[in-house]
Design brief:
Layout (H helix, E strand, L loop, with lengths): L1 H22 L2 H13 L5 H19 L3 H18 L6 H16 L11 E5 L6 E4 L3 E5 H4 L5 H16 L2 H5 L6 H11 L5 H11 L4 H10 L3 H18 L4 H13 L7 H4 L3 H12 L9 H11 L3
Parallel strand pairs: 1-3
Antiparallel strand pairs: 2-3
Length: about 300
Amino acid sequence: MKRSGRASALQAGWLLLALAAAAGCAEVAQMGTAIGQASGALTTEQAQSINRTAVAMDKTFKDITPEQEYYIGRAVAASVLDKYRPMEGESANRYINVLGQALAQASDRPETFGGYHFQVLASEEINAFAAPGGLIMVSRGLLRCCKSEDAVAAVLAHEIGHVQGAHGLRAIRTGRLTSALTILAAESAKNLGNEQLAELTRTFEGSISDITSTLMNSGYSRNLEREADASAVTILKRVGYNPHALLDMLGEMKRNLKPGGPDFAKTHPDPEDRMADVRLLIGAASASPAPAARQQRFEKALSRL
């Protein structure tokens, strides 16, 4: 019974390690192994093995350099553009690039290794994608939901918020664990059987497709969307755009989205939930009308979408 209990605790320890690595938090694993040691379920050697692997997994994510992030982002963007054809309209693309650059400069991460780049996609879906490193793609369908430049700014600021928070990298951490898995194999050989080790390896195996799948299929968590919305509100205020435009855009998308569709509805939380959070972020700030010149500029640039 004692041996069985220790084996179960060890398996729980490895599961805790898996969760900790997914969350990017080696401290969680270390806390769990400390509890395992205190209860006598884990030996000192087993606890150290788990902790060393957790630290290695955590380090693989933190050690992604800006240059590596850029090349990861390029690969992700290429995958997106393989499915969504880029729109060739020069006016619209120039417009969102000029506007996007101004917004990016007001973010907490104004510079990336390859710089920010914006592209309109020739798709009627209501969607947008932010690849790591600052490659941001917005569908024609989403831009058609925008009634003003402030609304376009709200869309771009939200996507910049994802880049600023490195949200995409969180989806591909499993793809960065190759070296950690090597350590895991060596550390756990004396604790886990070949079958268990193979299963654990499969669990953590990943590639660039992890983030592409997150962007196009599963979407970010509500917490990350809330973080991107908070960044967007801050950016809009800094540049002088109306943060209420983010609320307007969420309302517009809610009216246009089809439940169960392949676009924004599939990859984002319910706009109504986000609107409640954004209202709290905006606070008592009053909405002011946009200058006439700004609206004219918007209509001229996007009139042919």
